[in-house]
């Protein structure tokens, strides 16, 4: 059940096997929310609460070590403390219980060539652990010159330009409200200044050309990157409510005259990390 490369294997069986493994090694029977932390967002895990367990990704069925610098090769179970024993006040007479977050630091990208099943294995595993909400984050290029490097943007919708779907066979899923308006409203209770836009996923690993960025803009795109949309589709299929957050690490090709580089992405993520990590941790505690 652990071979996602075998087309006769049910990928949901592998996700259930991964969830069972995580329950054993973390001692947490059920997780409530999952986070996929992209470039720049990794520090949020340290601010959420107490880390109950940290597991190397490659030890969990269906997962492997990250292939991209800047991504963390572990899966963490984190306890988010509730108000406890009636301490919630008049509006919460019984208090709120502790919740558990599953933090996926190891993301597989489509351009790695490991197959779409591995790209979405994390969100399917999250659903199998009991999570009902997933927060998908990324670092991306921005088309709006007003969004300088370090700007967090809520994802309102997406354009999947990878010519790939995580769904197999006659599996029809409505994506009209894929990115939850309710969760975006929650995020804006933490930071009312958060803007929102349409995220465009290209296959990568090469950066987009200026002409491709111009095309994305004409199609309605505001952000360009190489992740997230395929995971979001799989998350909706698995029954998860989705919140998407992008960190603008650079202006996209043709918007700025500066050549693009992965080092620039990492530098912008590091510079914005403390601020956006604190933002994300506050948002997750309110979900």
Account of the 3D structure:
The chain contains eight helices and nine strands. The protein has helices at 11-26, 44-48, 116-119, 121-128, 181-190, 210-218, 229-237, 262-286, and strands spanning 33-36, 50-56, 74-80, 99-104, 133-142, 151-160, 195-201, 223-225, 241-251. A five-stranded mixed β-barrel has the order 5-8-7-6-9, surrounded by four helices. It starts with 10 loop residues before the first helix and ends with a helix. 46% of the residues are buried.
What is the CA-CA span between the terminal residues? Answer: 33 Å
| Most strands sheet | 5 strands, mixed, barrel
Q: In the CATH classification, which architecture applies?
A: 3-Layer(aba) Sandwich
Shape: globular
Query: CATH homologous superfamily, by name?
Result: Nucleoside phosphorylase domain
Strand content bin:
15-25%
CATH class: Alpha Beta
Q: What is the count of DSSP helices, taking H or I runs of 4+ residues?
A: 8
How many separate domains? 1
Find the CATH topology: Rossmann fold
Task: State the strand order across the main sheet.
Answer: 5-8-7-6-9
Unreliable runs:
85-93
Radius of gyration: 18 Å
Give the proportion of residues in helices: 25-40%
Structural class: alpha/beta
Chain-averaged pLDDT: 90
How do the helices and strands follow one another from N- to C-terminus?
Answer: HEHEEEHHEEHEHEHEH
Number of strands: 9
Binding site for phosphate: 39, 71, 107-109, 139, 227
GO molecular function: purine-nucleoside phosphorylase activity
Catalytic activity: a purine 2'-deoxy-D-ribonucleoside + phosphate = a purine nucleobase + 2-deoxy-alpha-D-ribose 1-phosphate
Organism: Cellulomonas cellasea
């Amino acid at each position: 059940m652990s071979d996602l490369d075998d087309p006769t294997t049910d990928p949901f069986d592998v996700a259930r096997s991964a969830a069972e493994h995580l329950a054993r090694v973390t001692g947490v029977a059920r997780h409530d929310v999952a986070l996929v932390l992209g470039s720049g967002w990794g520090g949020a895990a340290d601010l959420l609460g107490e880390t109950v367990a940290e597991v190397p990704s490659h030890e969990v069925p269906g997962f492997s070590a990250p292939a991209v610098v800047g991504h963390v090769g572990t899966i963490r179970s984190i306890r988010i403390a509730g108000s406890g024993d009636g301490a919630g006040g008049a509006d919460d007479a019984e208090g709120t219980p502790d919740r558990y977050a599953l933090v996926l630091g190891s993301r597989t990208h489509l351009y790695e060539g490991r197959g779409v099943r591995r790209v979405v294995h994390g969100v399917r595993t999250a659903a199998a652990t009991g999570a009902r909400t997933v927060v998908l984050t990324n670092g991306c290029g921005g088309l709006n010159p007003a969004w300088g490097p370090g700007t967090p943007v809520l994802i309102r919708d997406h354009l999947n330009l990878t010519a790939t779907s995580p769904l197999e066979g006659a599996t029809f899923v409505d994506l009209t409200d894929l990115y939850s308006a309710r969760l975006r409203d929650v995020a804006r209770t933490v930071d009312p200044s958060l803007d929102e836009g349409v995220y465009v996923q290209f296959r990568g690993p090469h950066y987009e050309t200026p002409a491709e960025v111009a095309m994305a803009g004409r199609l309605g795109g505001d952000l360009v990157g190489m992740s997230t949309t395929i995971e979001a589709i799989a998350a909706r299929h698995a029954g998860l409510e989705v919140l998407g957050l992008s960190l603008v690490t650079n202006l996209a090709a043709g918007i700025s005259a500066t050549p693009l580089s992965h080092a620039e992405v990492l530098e912008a993520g590091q510079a914005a990390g403390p601020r956006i990590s604190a933002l994300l941790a506050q948002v997750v505690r309110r979900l």
